[in-house]
Design goal:
heterodimer; A: 218 residues; mainly alpha; B: mainly alpha; Rna Polymerase Sigma Factor, Chain: A; Arc Repressor Mutant, subunit A; 68% helix; globular
């Protein structure tokens, strides 16, 4: 290996990340090459600098974690509920369309809505005899068997039951978290009161009694 | 008896909240150190660490025995750091906001150390994210290249190259900032 290759590997050599053979050859090279030895010393110096970089002390607030988790669970549940309502709405629409055999017909100057196969004019044409049909769109629902209808009903009921179960599970989780949160808050309050008592005692020992005793002997 | 982290995670998954609290106590400083080196801003470290442990809490059910807990946790921390970097790019901290080294150091030496720390933090912050990540994970968190490979989803050989380049670039940057050679701090150790 030449000097450039050695220098490329020095960071790995410094962190013991090379194979035994490579490590030995770099050691040998550094012993005989003053320039690479200087480079190695410079790397060691950098490593010491990096080690000396201070780190801030951090205390994780567990109560905030529990409160945040509860909030996010609630948001997730709300999203679930919305999705389920949308799904149920779509299922209800399908039921309406297929169950009632809804038919919408657009004719010249009028729209015809009918169900159960009985056509009904919603708006009479203003002219007794229209010149011609401009557009004709027909949506005719296919025949649906009672078995299919029952299937759609079953799906809706199963979805509702699933949401109910999920809801109950999450209610249980919320309750457990809320209880833990309360316990922690109670502990915090107790510690705060104890600190206040300590500070008051310390104050009276170091500074002296409060206003009511002012004017007396120190 | 298995690894303490795995045991704690097992207890936590069975509903023991004190096990989670113990995990937080064990890992809050390493995660803060990782985020500090990655994000480079002291005042954001507390909030980002909080977010890491909140995500950890929410992901309880997703942890599997097969994985190493530390790798999983660093993965979460890495995602939080990347999200934070994406949200906004902030300028480097001014000198007077940096934490001072331990007491008992002469003022001149303390100022010199402070300036060096700032230059290092700046050099780290200026490294491209892929280089900075591998440098921080290898040097500060002591992860080996196999673990980093699993975490960053890149081959170990690529990561080794990145690590060498990161160290070389950082050294060049420090030289540019005037930290080429410190009296009494250089030396050759074999």
């Amino acid at each position: 290996m030449d000097c450039n290759e050695i220098r490329d590997r020095l960071p790995l050599f410094l962190h013991d990340d090379l194979a035994a053979g490579e490590t030995a050859s770099i050691k040998d090279h550094c012993d005989s090459c003053p320039a690479c030895r200087k480079e190695y010393a410079s790397m060691q110096q950098l490593r010491r600098f990096l080690d000396g970089l201070p780190t801030p002390r951090v205390e994780i607030n567990l109560a905030r974690i529990y409160a945040g988790a509860t909030r996010r669970q609630e948001m997730r549940m709300r999203r679930w509920r919305r999705a389920t309502y949308a799904l149920v709405g779509v299922a209800a629409m399908m039921l309406l369309v297929f169950g009632l055999k809804l038919e919408v017909r657009l004719q010249a100057h009028q729209m015809v809505v009918s169900w159960n196969g009985q056509p009904e004019t919603v708006q009479p044409a203003p002219q007794p005899s229209p010149p011609q049909d401009f557009a004709r769109v027909e949506l005719l629902a296919p025949e649906v068997s009672p078995k299919d209808l029952q299937l759609v009903k079953d799906i809706v009921h199963a979805l509702a039951a699933h949401v109910e179960t999920l809801d109950q599970n999450h209610q249980g989780t919320f309750k457990a978290l809320a209880t833990r949160l309360e316990t922690m808050q109670y502990g915090d309050n107790q510690r705060w009161k104890a600190t206040q008592r300590d500070v008051a005692a310390l104050y009276s020992v170091c500074i002296g009694p409060h206003d009511k005793d002012r004017g007396g002997k120190p | 008896m298995g690894h303490p982290d795995a045991e704690l995670v097992g207890r936590w998954q069975k509903g023991d909240a004190s096990a989670f609290e113990e995990l937080v106590r064990r890992w809050q400083q390493p995660i803060a150190r990782f985020l500090m080196r990655h994000v480079g801003r002291t005042e954001r470290v507390a909030d980002l660490s909080q977010e890491v442990f909140l995500r950890l809490f929410l992901a309880r059910a997703r942890y599997r025995e097969a994985g190493v807990f530390s790798t999983w946790l660093y993965q979460i921390a890495l995602n939080v750091a990347r999200d934070a970097a994406r949200r906004r790019r902030l300028p480097l901290k001014p000198l007077h906001d940096q934490e001072l080294p331990a007491n008992g150091t002469p003022v001149g030496q303390q100022c010199e150390q402070d300036e060096l720390n700032q230059a290092l933090a700046r050099g780290l912050a200026e490294l491209p994210e892929p280089l900075r990540e591998v440098l921080v994970l290898r040097h500060y968190e002591g992860l080996n290249f196999e673990e980093i490979s699993r975490l960053l989803k890149a081959p170990a050989s690529t990561l080794k190259s990145r690590f060498s380049v990161a160290v070389q670039r950082l050294r060049t940057r420090l030289k540019d900032l005037g930290w080429d050679d410190l009296p009494g701090k250089s030396g050759h150790e074999t």
